[in-house]
Design brief:
The chain is an alpha/beta fold. The protein contains 9 helices and 4 strands. The protein starts with 5 loop residues before the first helix and ends with a helix.
């Protein structure tokens, strides 16, 4: 949620401060500390199966870099991997929700994906860290609609024989290829993906 969003402003107003900026700073540091402690608690679980911690952006003021939050989560969840060499590592992984083929475009333009997930995954891919990806919606075999199109307009123009040929997620084949290149080793797929892959009439 962006600093200007109503929900963020409502959250900030719950904190003490002489003005909104002081409240926002207190809210930011309090939430950072809370989430850090939650990640540390997950590390102490010593789970037999990996626990995936989602990375997100978070900022209460425009002057605060929202990706500092995702970087903090990644650091706290994976900092022991450099010493354990794949043995007796904490069963924590990193995940991102809302990945789309837009990440391919911004990454190729020397920018980075939402919450810097592309760069963070790429930095951790050789350490044995579980790296999980989930899309916001099922994919579309025709890719993303053009900026001036709705999904319906894109669908009608492309005359795709599948039900949902155009979605903001983009084409799964493109997203999988790119995601593998930055280290993703676990995909959460919608049932639609299985239907497209296994039912020629879908």
């Amino acid at each position: 949620t962006s600093p200007s969003h109503y929900c963020m402003q409502t959250f900030v107003d719950q904190f003490k401060g002489l003005d909104y900026e002081e409240k926002a700073a207190n809210a930011y540091h309090t939430w950072m500390k809370f989430v850090k402690n939650r990640v540390l608690a997950f590390r102490r679980f010593n789970s037999a199966k990996p626990i995936v911690v989602a990375i997100n952006e978070f900022s209460t003021l425009p002057s605060i870099d929202s990706t500092d939050f995702s970087r903090m989560i990644a650091h706290e969840a994976t900092k022991d991997y450099t010493r354990c060499n794949g043995r007796n590592c904490p069963k924590l992984g990193l995940g991102v929700q809302g990945a789309t083929t837009n990440g391919i475009d911004v990454h190729s333009d020397r920018d980075d994906c939402y919450a810097e997930w592309c760069a963070i995954f790429n930095e951790h891919k050789d350490l044995g860290v579980p790296l999980q990806l989930q899309t916001p919606l099922h994919s579309g075999v025709n890719g993303r609609p053009a900026p001036w199109q709705s999904s319906t307009q894109c669908q009608e123009l492309r005359k795709n024989n599948g039900r949902y040929g155009c979605t903001t997620t983009g084409a799964m084949t493109e997203l999988i290829d790119f995601s593998l290149s930055v280290g993703v080793n676990s995909f959460e797929l919608y049932s639609y993906e299985w239907m497209v892959a296994n039912d020629e009439w879908w």
